[in-house]
Amino acid sequence: MAPKEITITGFTVRDLRWPTSLDNIGTDPMNLAGENSFGYLQYQTDAGLVGTGWSFANGQGNDVLCTAIRSLAPRFVGRTLSSLTANMGQTQRKISSGQIRFMSPERGVLQLATNAVLNAVWDLWAKAEAKPLWRLVADFTPEEVVRAIDFRYLSDVLTPEQALEMLRAQEGTKAERIRLALENKAVPAYNTSAGWLGHSDEKVRELLKSAMSQGFRHFKLKAGLGLEADRKRLGFVREVVGDEGILMVDVNQLWDVDEAIEYMKHLADLKLWFIEEPTSPDDILGHAKIRAALKPYGIGVATGEHINNRVMFKQLLQAEALDAVQLDACRLASVNEILSVLLMSAKFGVPVVPHSGGAGMVELCSHVSTIDFVVVSGKKSILEYTDHLHEAFEAPAAITPDGFHVTPTAPGYSCDVKEAEFGKFECPSGTFWQSEIGQKMLNDPWRGVPGEQTS
Amino acid sequence: MAPKEITITGFTVRDLRWPTSLDNIGTDPMNLAGENSFGYLQYQTDAGLVGTGWSFANGQGNDVLCTAIRSLAPRFVGRTLSSLTANMGQTQRKISSGQIRFMSPERGVLQLATNAVLNAVWDLWAKAEAKPLWRLVADFTPEEVVRAIDFRYLSDVLTPEQALEMLRAQEGTKAERIRLALENKAVPAYNTSAGWLGHSDEKVRELLKSAMSQGFRHFKLKAGLGLEADRKRLGFVREVVGDEGILMVDVNQLWDVDEAIEYMKHLADLKLWFIEEPTSPDDILGHAKIRAALKPYGIGVATGEHINNRVMFKQLLQAEALDAVQLDACRLASVNEILSVLLMSAKFGVPVVPHSGGAGMVELCSHVSTIDFVVVSGKKSILEYTDHLHEAFEAPAAITPDGFHVTPTAPGYSCDVKEAEFGKFECPSGTFWQSEIGQKMLNDPWRGVPGEQTS
């Protein structure tokens, strides 16, 4: 069914920041205080439908992201939805081109802005078809999936023809996987809410027990406090979760390459599935070296939260640097680029375990992981579940009593934030940010920087 | 001589854009219209001195850069200059840390903003010492150079101790190289002004002849128009410059990896020194593959203009992907990170040929290349000279009649733009941007995008 003609008539961009640092959510060794934030774009249309897209930031600099979205968003005003969706791969390439490309080709803040704009188009498209985003893509033919991807820079690893062949091989069994998705059996959950560095030992123990009673077996914890402190902390976590619990640790880019290898060797007896972000996300060769060195110790390597584009993932896969592809649904250029990374990961046989440790991330990734299972890999992987701020969303993510993500059912890409949140948390006009504590947080340019005075 | 105590009291950030696209300056296959632009920061001090720093953009999105600079710049207000310069490596790490890091660690727009802030500190420091920036660094002890660098993520290739050893080995002959620098014999120039794609054949011929009469032997040209057109264009350039002319071509990330190899093989008879930016700047393994494949054809590979940080350069060197390191003086985190890339390049024996194809770039790079020669590599390389917009600067770059860059003599980092430029070209308030043509350019969100309607 073709969508009826819909024209984009205008847009709004809003700076939304939740003061998550007050609860120590989002703390890690590189950032002692993070405020989950969105550069939040809405496209208005002549059909009454609104297309919503956002990218995630961590407090300071969210205004930079909003400025970038304001720069790109006008490109689609006056355009019909069908003129954009007829070839979404080309639409991606065009939004990534031009003068603005020089500042940061497919990287950094500009890539986040590109994602927000394309997310809004995908959201609008899915709403126009009255389908959740994952189902819109699940109902594509292989040719339609390929047309959504910009294959530039990928052809040495994945051509459109190879992608078609992979997608066609999954077609015969797709209906069965759609059935599983509709029964909430597509995407098993794992838990990280227990692991933020700011939490006390007691709080971590309590959160773990609560998670286990909900059926979780996978747990991810922040590390990097120093070997003694980490061994103590991870040791009691291992005690609480028992031998059958699967533990992962994350140090958020803390180490140099050889330092990561040495440190992790000393944690081998704790039986960790992988070390996440051991070093700079740009260090492809470094990740490959770390993985090779830790393999004899039974420890894998994962990264992706800060990987900006398909070219970096291509190389991480070529270099055999990863045991899990932790793509971030905002860091890449929306569903377009995510599809290319899902395909490459499937080709190399590496599971996709999306990063979803922030507000709204689970909402987006429950679509992404469902698409991976239903359309691309055909295999169940796992998806991080963090339990904060779901109440802020019109179509909140949730998990089942047996530890699966609930497959989204509302039309769209689950991007819409409840209007009431803006009254409190839009920055700087919301009531929280106008309060004394809010003003103090906003006016501290060093907030979250290790080693500096922060208020 | 220690500088007297100077305190930073405030700052201004201005959006400066020259309408260079009107002269077809800055055109390439990925961007059909570029406006050389600065996010321009000035720190005011209680001593009357002003520290100036900027990063380069290409028109649209320069406001994103300015917003990013405004976010970071407050961190140094109220600080004394000596508290920042006592350990510039640590100062770099601190400005790259905190909430803002999450959006784009040491990449993209945030890295450009980091550069602008640190450039302003270096400029202020050199002015306080009444020395041109290159001389400030040339007068450092090896220990002082090492203290200016953040070695995070580098230790698998370069440790502080190894850097010290390299720098000490150059100390004995440094005075002689300083003498050469003072005689304008440190940095040979090469020419790209003839090569922008927007120029007609006649204009290219005329510009080449003029450059040759000024003593230039190296010429770089844009390519990527298609094999037939490129062969025709490069063929007549080869005719004009003769066998002794050294030709380089640049396609600004146009191709996929295997496409680059196939295309360039067909240009082998034109005897090209290197192909610049054959593919995505993020594709380290791709550049290595292209270089290996083209080596038998006598064609080298270069990149760097879009390389964001020391970790990417580290890997390009580890992977033996480069014949020339084309670092960009704004893309990296100022002199701090440039020093680390100079050291790694020297360690791997690859010449540094900085990118300086835009307004103000030659002004900065004449310091950078002088530092490379005097302090780090001890070897003469070459530096791009483009001849537009020098008149806009308080301390303009220039070349000697025998084809060397004039070594800067004015105190500071040659960042200061003449105040009169802002009246015309500050955006959007300047007279040019308020004019009919200026408004039309600003209001075209597709400007420069290949295949789109642009005005």
CATH architecture of the largest domain in chain A: Alpha-Beta Barrel
Q: Write the element-wise H/E pattern of chain A from the N-terminal end onward.
A: EEEHHHHHHHHEHEHEHEHEHEHHEHHH
How many distinct beta strands of chain A? 10
Query: Low-confidence parts of chain A, pLDDT < 50 over ≥5 residues?
Result: none
The multimeric state of the shown protein is homodimer
The CATH top-level class label of the largest domain in chain A: Alpha Beta
Number of helices of chain A: 18
- Most extensive interface, residues per chain? A-B, 73 and 73 residues
Sheet with most strands of chain A: 5 strands, parallel
What's the helical proportion of residues of chain A? Answer: 40-55%
Radius of gyration of chain A: 21 Å
N→C terminal distance of chain A? 56 Å
Strand order of the largest sheet of chain A: 5-6-7-8-9
InterPro entries (chains A, B): Enolase-like_C_sf, Enolase-like_N, Enolase_C-like, Mandel_Rmase/mucon_lact_enz_CS, Mandelate_racemase_C, Mandelate_racemase_N_dom, RHMD-like
Cofactor (chains A, B): Mg(2+)
Keywords (chains A, B): Magnesium, Metal-binding
Domain Mandelate racemase/muconate lactonizing enzyme C-terminal (chains A, B): 201-297
